[in-house]
Write a structure and sequence with these properties.
single chain; 611 residues; alpha/beta; 13-stranded mixed sheet; 10-stranded mixed sheet; globular; binds zinc ion
Amino acid sequence: MNKQCQNCKVGFEIATDDLNFYSKISVPPPTFCWRCRMQRRDNWRNERSLYKRKCDAPGHSENVISVFSPDAPCIVYDQKYWWSDEWNSLAYGVPYDFSTPFFEQFKALLGKVPLPAVSSVNSVNSDYTNAAAENKNTYLSFAAGFNENVAYSNKIGYGKDSLDCYMATKLELCYENVNCHESYRLLWGVNSKNCRDSYFLYNCKNCSNCFGCANLISKSYHIWNQPYSKEEYTKQLASFDFVTREGIEAFKEKFQKEIVANAVHKYANILNSPHCTGDNINNSKNVHTSFDVLTGSEDSKFLQHCYEEKNGYDCMGAWKYELSYESVDVNIGSNNVATVITYNANANRYTLNCHGCNNIFGCIGLRNKEYCILNRQYSKEEYEKLVPQIVKQMNEMPYTSNTRQGTPKSFATGQASDKGIEYKYGEFFPPELSPWAYNETIAQEYFPLTEEEAKLKGFRWRKSEERHYNATLSGDTIPNQIKDAPDSIVNEVIECTHKGTCNEQCTTAFKIIEQELQLYRKLNLPLPNLCPNCRHYARLAQRNPLQLWKRKCMCAGKNSRSSNIEPRTVYANTAAHFHGTGECPNEFETSYAPERPEIIYCENCYQQEVV
Ligand SMILES: [Zn+2]
Ligand SMILES: [Zn+2]
Ligand SMILES: [Zn+2]
Ligand SMILES: [Zn+2]
């Protein structure tokens, strides 16, 4: 089936398998293309924009750390009170109004039912975490679970004594890793697994004591991809400057220019995962058009950061869940946190922050309930009679998005169109209902926009606050080596070198915390001169976008074809390939755009080269 996206107006295809899935859960086929759907969901997840605001719980007046800004259009309770039995979410229930579109009614409810300040469950001494569970001594980390003594990390699980990692599991004593797993004392690693005591690795597996290497498997004592004796390696390493920021920057540049740029790249970072398309998929099977999928996901499509998700379509942050569609954060840890979903295996539809519920529709903040609509309790018979009537009404009286000032515009193209975007049954929540502005959410991380673009597309934008930190140290005045940093450095307010001029949620200033200082000392690393958000965006920039292009393997027999842009690198093969001396016929879907400079090989040719 071919359709035109209601949002970006680009054509997209719906496969037969997809139609089977939609009919299984009785939803119509989507009207947005998959990337517009992903962007729309991401606009409902604020991971890292934290504020101090008043707790709205009765009798409370203290400030709490919250993902909702003080002027957000919602009621916010501190976590402990929100999870207590002191208040009753059914008290906010209203009868369904068949003369008003469903989403208008949901929006009204969203302005009234209290929301938890942050989502961080079963954690100890981990106040500055969100979308998080089961952490200990973890600081400014998001989408994080089961970590101890971890800071400034994102999408991290089972980490220990590590800083500044992104998309990582089972790391210990690690720093600045992106897409790395099961490693010990790995620093500046990308797409690497099971490595130890190594610096600057790209696509390496089972390596130890390697420095500045790409595409190595089961090697040790290598520098810039060349083997050394243990003695020579140790001698060389001792002569390197890891202790100053300039020294590290120089290594980073050489590593990128001379090693990574000249390496052959696998079309996708898919490991031990048969029949999968997308990027960064580990130990899963039959998962398509998906990104950052961890162990045990199966038979799913359009996933983003999921773990053990089965039979799911369009899920962001689903953990150990089955049969869910258009969901954000379902079942984190053991707490069955269902944040935003249109459908899941428990037949919950259009819910927000509901836990342990079955058969609820359009509800917010319910716990262990059944047969509720707009937070109002019904009998099973009443519920089963009402829901089909509501579905029918949603189709006959759809909510229309973006009709402000009588000039409806498509929020993707900014073009005036005859009508706004229609939200019938099966459509995810419209962006303007989100309690967050676009640039507070992960949509800004994965689909970055300028303020102007976001507004043109109908997203809300939050002006970055004027921050008035009196920085006591600047990028030029912080000690250049950790040996010169006194214990009192934890009292200083350090100015971020970006000074808020970037589009990276820069906080303009930051502090060093005690556990961090101890780790820098242990690893003999210099202090950072960028704030945690700017460092996070620098790691994001090392990743490919959530996008796929159909491309052909660049292997041409003895060599690769030359890359598409200057300096037109050619990679010389080291082994004979299955296709002989002619061009490899294999095609694939890859997150490397056709105009990129890297040499991209299919699985088969890549495996021939990397042994
Ligand atoms: Zn689209
Ligand atoms: Zn900054
Ligand atoms: Zn090939
Ligand atoms: Zn080949």
